[in-house]
Each structure stands twice: as C-alpha cells, then as structure tokens.
Design brief:
196 residues, eight-stranded antiparallel beta sheet, 6 helices, alpha+beta, binds protoporphyrin IX containing FE
Amino acid sequence: VSTSTSQSAAAARHFAFIGGDNGIWRVTQAETLIGETLASAPRLEIAPAELPAGDAAAHWVLHGVTSNDRYVERSEKAALQAVQAGLGRPAAFCAALIPIRKTATWWAMTQDERREIFQARSQHIGIGLRALPAVARRLYHCRDLPGPQPFDFLTWFEFAPEHVGAFDEMLRALRATPEWHYVEREVDIRLARDGH
Ligand code: HEM
C-alpha cells in the first residue's frame, strides 16, 4: 500500500510540457540562449504526465516534477512566502517557460559548493525577490525522473503584460551571475493564455 501511495504522490507531482498544436498557451516568442535549440511549436499544453498526451503531432514533450526546496534557508523561505503570488491569476496571462540544463561541473560539486554559487555569489533569491509578487513561479526538476532528460529544470513564470519589463530586467540580472556560467543549455519560450 505504501508503495502505491508514494507512486501516486510522485505521479501527482509529474507534469508533461507538450509543445504542439494544443493547449491554452500560445507561443509568442522563442529564443535559444545557449546550447541546442528546441523545435518551434505554436502552442503549449501542460498536463499531468499520467494522462495520454492526445497530441500525436507534438513537436516536443518535456517532463518535470515539482519537488522540495534544495537551497532556501528558513529566513529566505519566510521572505519568499511573505510576498509570492500563486499561479493562475487571471491578469497574469503572460508566461515564460525556460528549460535549463547545467554543466557536469555543476553537478559534480557538493550541495554546499552549489549553494555558495547560487546564493552567496549570485544572490539568486535576492534578484528573484525583486520581481515578486508581479511574477509567480514554479520550478520543475527533471533529474528526479528515470532516464536521460534533455534539461535539468523546467522553470515556469506567470505575469501580467505590464510586468514584462520587470521580468526581463530580473532575467538579465540572473544571467549575469556566476551561477549562469554553469548553464549549458537554455531556451526562453514566451507565451500568452488564450483569450489575450
Ligand atoms: C521570479 C523570481 C525568482 C525567484 C523568487 C526565484 C527563486 C528561486 C529559489 C528560492 C530557488 C531555490 C529553490 C530550492 O531551494 O531548491 C530557485 C531555483 C532555481 N531558479 Fe529561480 N527564482 C526566480 C527566477 C528565476 C528565473 C527567471 C530563472 C530562469 C531563467 C530561474 C531559474 C532557477 C533554476 C534553474 C533553479 C534551480 C537551481 C538549481 O537547483 O541548481 N529562477 N529560484
């Protein structure tokens, strides 16, 4: 019983990002920052991974699972929780899907070495906090899945059109940090929800 419970709990955290002809998200722009590009797709569907994709013509499917925090400390978690907004706000009909892969060097480091780069040297949380609550976010991990995955993370952001500038500014700041020296593949896909 405990095995099937943990399997279904894992399934509930597992999502498929399907680039193709379906889904409520329309792709408005896509840019490859570094590494191999991703085929273009007109729309994006985000579906629980256990459901059949239903899009035989999918151009690509990326899988990710939500997970526990790896780096945040208590005070940072409190600071985030005090200001962060949830996904699905009606006014936040713009989104960004940014799949990221980090280098073997990054993954060969220890957790404390990675945290040192992520926060002490790069201020990832501090930079990100500047865009809150305008930007809502969710991080999906790919390395927790069985089998090789094309990316290590699927990062997802939702914001209103008047906050695109703040989002882009925050992105520029993050990409200029030491953490991004360890990014070897990054694709920036911008989307708008149907009806907008
Ligand atoms: C909206 C503002 C943002 C905030 C508040 C924020 C905050 C965070 C936090 C707290 C974590 C650590 C989670 C943990 O403890 O495991 C994290 C991880 C991460 N964030 Fe952000 N972030 C933001 C924007 C971004 C953007 C724009 C990107 C991509 C371009 C990004 C990419 C990532 C990645 C790839 C990780 C995983 C790092 C790793 O485990 O190596 N973040 N972020």
